[in-house]
Structure formats: structure tokens, C-alpha cells
Amino acid sequence: MVTQRTQGLYRVFLLCQIAIVAILFWFGVWLMVTFYSPGGAEWTWRRYSIYCALLVLGMALESFSRDGSKNYFLQNELLRQHRLSLRQTLASVGALVFYLIATKDAFISRIFLFNFVPWLYVALLFSHHYLPQFLARRIFTGAREEKTILVGTSEKAAQLRSWLRRKGDIGLRTVGLICDEAIDKTDDGIPVLGNSDALENIIVQRGITQVIMLEFPVFDDDNRHIIQVCDRIGVRLLIVSDLEEKLRHPVTHFEDDGFRFIGLREEPLENPLNRCFKRAIDVAISLPVMILVFPILTVIVWIAQRIQSPGPLLHMQTRAGMQNRQFRIYKFRTMRPDHEELARQARDGDERVYPLGKWFRKLSIDEVPQFWNVLLGDMSIVGPRPHLIEHNNQFSQLMANYHVRAFVKPGITGLAQVRGFRGEARNSADIQKRVACDIEYLENWNLSLECGIILRTFVHVIVPPRSAY
User: Fold this and answer.
1) Which among 63, 162, 326, 436 is least surrounded, fewest beta carbons within 10 Å?
2) pTM of the shown model
3) CATH at residue 162
4) Domain containing 430: what range?
5) Are residues 228 and 294 in the same domain?
6) Strand partners, 411
7) Quick check: 334 and 354 in contact, CB under 8 A?
8) How far apart are CA 349 and CA 333, in angstroms?
9) Alpha-carbon separation of residue 182 from 149, 178, 193, 306 (angstroms)
10) Helix residue ranges, H only, 192-332
């Protein structure tokens, strides 16, 4: 019920915004035709009908990129409203400009267009600030108001404080709490109406239309009684899922082939289309790097090695990749070839690194051969950094969920690296921060995140952070 109300209000709000755009546009056209070009009114109305349709189309396309089930449009945050209004203005006017350029249409008045754009932004900003609450108060009143009682502890009721306040905008009115505690009301002022034995009488006497159980029920006789009472009287029953609290881990719900499942996380890269997009980015970047950049850097690094540390050009190691499958990683050698501490992490001022090798590491030049690993399919441009097998075994002792990062291919760069978590991992806190970033990446992957990490990595190559060594 709550989700349907939110989504429905969101769609009504969008329709009202589209109406505002159309009305504002035609009002501007009317002013222009009436006061500036009365002789060309007939052609103006015909052409500007197409322009209005394109503005509306841009608005509609922009709305598809947002999730209407999330009630961001009900939150009075000026910065968020500014961003949404700006996005809508750019999308709406962008569709019109694209049409004008594609058709070489020079009919529209440039003065009119440049005056219309700022007024469109202002109108959308005002609509975001005032319209959702205005609509909600008029749609969800009277017979559409849901008189709701909560069943559970006062502690659980306190956790829903802000949610209940927000849902008041869509007609959810909290009447009271059913609990076994010896209190008259909660700290938030919600009156305690009685215990679960009096539930049926309270529902009938107060005209309750909805019951919310504040925790996932253990199916004992008391909870079965609550469910039976709601079904018998015909009131809506909602149950707050606190599985995350019980499992001490975020969960995700999904349905597949008639069965409903609970998983521990979303994995966007299990979608073959998403993997195809990611692989296309990998190849599009790696191929030019290996053809154009790698040969030049090979010569530079080879000369530096001949002068300061003769030995093999490349350093190859066995690393743990996706699903902890082992592969050979390639790097330009930046350490002296005669050291024996192969498993020790590099640190600032490491005596094993020859002088120019320090600069190669700081500028990430030593990582360039890994683009060959990307082309081979062992790695990706973006992903968790692959560690030595010894380090994987060591780090997994510090974090129970360490190996979750192996759900996706390792990367040359990653979310942890662009947030500054690179270089030597000195303690368990360093490992936890990096793993948290890796898991955040695999749970929230999208194209904008992928491209954002790549762009930020490019900036870090030009201006290396202090942690780069």
C-alpha cells in the first residue's frame, strides 16, 4: 500500500510538472506572438506545437532515470531539488536543441528560448518545493487516510520515528502502539493503547484501517492471533522486516521462477548486459594503451633499469583473481632483482626500490603492463586490487567477508584507490576500509560509477596522492 501510494503520487506529480512546462511554454509563446510577431501567428502556433512536444518528451525521458518508489520528491532538501530541477531543465531543453540542430531549424526565436530556459528552471524548482506536499494533502485525506496502530516495543517504534513522520504526507496517521510495556506513551509521544489481547477491540472502537508489526514475527500463538484478527476484521497488515538486524548483515529480496529468496547483497555485474558494457570499456581503453602507450613506456623503463638496476624488464607474480582463481600479473619491475622478500608489501622509502622505480610507482607507470591482463580477461580496468596469495590468506583472517571482493574481476584501479586507500596496508583498519569500498563497488555497480572511477584515476595519475609510492 505504502509503495503504491508513493509511486502513484510520484506519477501525478510528474504529470503536473509536465503540465506546468507546457503552460509556461505556451504562455511565453502567447506573449511573443501578441506583442512581437502578430503577423506570423499562424506559422508560430504550428511550429511551436512541435517544440512544446519535444520539451515534454525531454521531461518524460529524464523521469525514466529516477526511481519513483523512493520518496526523494517528498523531502524538502533545497540542494536535491536544485539538482533535480537542473537535470529536468537540461533534459527538456536538450531534446529541443537536439531537434533544432538535427533538422537545421532556425525558426524558433533565440531571444524567446534564452528567456524561457531560466523561467523553466525556476518553475520546476518551485514545483519540487511546494507541489508534492500540496498534492499529498489533497489526495490522501478523508476516506483515503489510513488510521494505523503499531504492534511491538517502544524501542522498535522509535526506530520508525522519521519514517512515520514522512509517511504522514501520504495519509498514514499513527493512532497508537500495542505493546506489553507498562507505559502510557512512548518517548516520541505515541500513546500506548493496550496489549495484544485487546487488539481486536481497539481496531473496532477506533476505526483502525492498518496494523504495522514492528519486527519480523516468530510464529507463535500471539503473532498468529494478530494475523488472524487483521484478516477477520479486514484491516491491512504490514510487517517491518528486521532480518538485517537479526542477521547483522544487509539483505536483498528477489523473486525467481515462482520462488522468493533473500540474498545478502545486490550484484549488478551478474547481469550479462552490464558485464558486456564493462568489458567494452575495458577493451576500448586497454587496446589503445597497449598499442600507443606501452611501447614508449617500455623503452623508458628499460633504459632506467639498465642505468640503475639491470635485470628483467617485467615483474610477474601469481595473484588471486575472480573467485580466487590464480593468474599471472604483469608489472614493470621497480625493485632490485636480488632481494628475497617477495611477499613483503612495498612501503614509503622501501630500500628494495631503485630511485627511478619510486617515480614509476608514484605515477602508476609500473601498472601499465596490466592492461595486457585486462585484454586477456584476467582483470578489468576497475575492480578490487588483486593481492598476493599470501596476503589474501593473511587478510582473510582479519575480516570474515574479505573474499566477497572476489565476486568480480580484480582491477587496475578501484573505488578504494580513488578514495586514497592505496599503498601499504599497515593495520586491520586499512584492510577494512579497502574491502568496504570493494564491496560497495560490486553491490552498486553502474556505468556512471565505472566511468567516474576511471576519470578520478586519471586525475590521480597526473596529481598523485600522498599515499602513492
Assistant:
1) 162
2) 0.62
3) 3.40.50.720
4) 272-462
5) no
6) 380
7) yes
8) 16
9) 17, 11, 11, 82
10) 199-206, 221-233, 243-247, 272-288, 294-308
